[in-house]
Design a protein that fits this description.
This protein is mainly beta and 59 residues long. Helix content is 7%, strand content 42%.
């Protein structure tokens, strides 16, 4: 999804427990060229419950 001068991607992880909490937690990454991605640290949704199938939409 475009976000100003960068792109943001959501993806799900299922481990390790210290990073995801409950399995299938959404994490986020950013890129300026759509080729090289950097995970956004401390940005997860939600470690407390199941949150599979991430989607970002530009409105």
């Amino acid at each position: 999804c475009g976000a100003g001068d960068r792109y943001v991607m959501a993806f799900e992880i299922f481990g390790p427990p210290e990073e995801c909490g409950v399995r299938f937690t959404m994490q986020f990454a950013e890129s300026t060229d759509l080729l090289r991605w950097r995970r956004i640290e401390n940005c997860a949704y939600s470690k407390e419950r199941y949150t599979a199938c991430p989607a970002l939409r530009f409105l």
